[in-house]
Prior knowledge:
The chain is an alpha/beta fold.
Amino acid sequence: xxxxxxxxxxxxxxxxxxxxxxxxxxxxxxxxxxxxxxxxxxxxxxxxxxxxxxxxxxxxxxxxxxxxxxxxxxxxxxxxxxxxxxxxxxxxxxxxxxxxxxxxxxxxxxxxxxxxxxxxxxxxxxxxxxxxxxxxxxxxxxxxxxxxxxxxxxxxxxxxxxxxxxxxxxxxxxxxxxxxxxxxxxxxxxxxxxxxxxxxxxxxxxxxxxxxxxxxxxxxxxxxxxxxxxxxxxxxxxxxxxxxxxxxxxxxxxxxxxxxxxxxxxxxxxxxxxxxxxxxxxxxxxxxxxxxxxxxxxxxxxxxxxxxxxxxxxxxxxxxxxxxxxxxxxxxxxxxxxxxxxxxxxxxxxxxxxxxxxxxxxxxxxxxxxxxxxxxxxxxxxxxxxxxxxxxxxxxxxxxxxxxxxxxxxxxxxxxxxxxxxxxxxxxxxxxxxxxxxxxxxxxxxxxxxxxxxxxxxxxxxxxxxxxxxxxxxxxxxxxxxxxxxxxxxxxxxxxxxxxxxxxxxxxxxxxxxxxxxxxxxxxxxxxxxxxxxxxxxxxxxxxxxxxxxxxxxxxxxxxxxxxxxxxxxxxxxxxxxxxxxxxxxxxxxxxxxxxxxxxxxxxxxxxxxxxxxxxxxxxxxxxxxxxxxxxxxxxxxxxxxxxxxxxxxxxxxxxxxxxxxxxxxxxxxxxxxxxxxxxx
Length: 681
């Protein structure tokens, strides 16, 4: 059976639930019945089960104990609830790592990890691949016809890297396949620098920060190994249960995983996200951070449904400061995901454990164990509201007119390079320069009321009016040609500082930046790049005014028009924002990282000039955002107040009904702090 992307055959409403760990409560069988009753009260329709249950399922090699899981699956089926059955590869049994020590990871220093913790198995290990495939096959054989089985939760938050001899050899083989010969590899890597010429494949290390091309290829290899391991896990599941979708939980913008590639191999996109509490000092930006990540998932699913597989209904336990969710913020986070296409909302976790690393992590059911807690009642309200919104789950997110390219390879290449970096100055993605720059432009477009689709280097650009390329540091000739064609055909393109510096092997383009022909497209030559201290600002004058921060490039015009210039420092008068006509389209280059107000003014001007549609054609207060979902017979709008102020919104005659309010219609909608309204329009 071929499963349509983004669908779960057994889903007829929002899936709502949590990670559930009954394997930890086998000594207290009454807990299962108590949990089932509490789940019914909270409106739970599904649960992820068995994520870290390998030893409970296979207490010793080859001996399986499924009786406890049978009881769980049967009780869920009796209550009309569904199970996302997990493969338990995320944490290996003690007996397995004791018998086969080679499955334990080796760090960069050559030290093999202890058996504890999690996500620390070797992806290259034939033993671990065989053992995971074996238990996955056993699970599929046991539950392939079970009515509660809705989909497979494969692995859990795949991440990390291993530097053992198996991985080193696999990396060398991977490079041999990629380059074919040592001459080709040395040429691509520019290995003659510092006398790093490779004369034997066995000389290649897994970690060498002095060879930036090696670092980039290592990230590619690690990503490929994870994907290969995941597919090995899926093979017996898809063989025995072809009508049951397979997914794994992504982690937003996690550095070591190129999720654009992962999305091609799963039946439905799923993500874990733990937003900062809404009362933090920068609450608006952190709310938009979540929206940014949801947009990324929406892009990977092509506008179809995806899953929020982990979030917290209260606090976490791993932050520097673990704040509780304030009234309204938890509900808003859930509906924000729904507005961006999520058809599943799951928490980590259902019930707090008595011990272990996460015994204080947020959960629906606290250690007190009843329905009396504030968090439980909050979750029950949300469960009721999701049931009221059941019609929304079949609606998709419409394509936007603006696309922004998010590229893991540019991020990897930039991180591996010495020189074009800035001092990190804080914010939602502090410490991740590439994503910070992407977020800057997403935030500004959101402030303009414009929805953004995030796309990959392989996406079809032609459906969009505007293409935004933040810090597209790594550019292939093929990609540059496609960007050129998009602009020639009437599209508008915006590129930023640090675009077009290196090729596929992290070697600089010759002939001036941006390379691969983009210098001609944008009509500029980027001669130099200056890094600024955190407290430094460069004034901007011209069509747009304000300040640049962190990084500034010194441009020369080669056909482009300067529409804003530096007004301070030694590059005073040099262009910082340029425009160049390219047949039917226009190419804009922003030669600095600008503060948000500059970007808002810039994109507002483009919206007016090129008739970019706002998500809602009404002026909204700063901090209020509107999102849409649409089906064949209905349109739904979500209004979010991400601020600590109350706003009154005049919808100016827009016909609507409020799906979660007692009153269907009012002249003005009042949005209290962190409030959300769901409208049928």
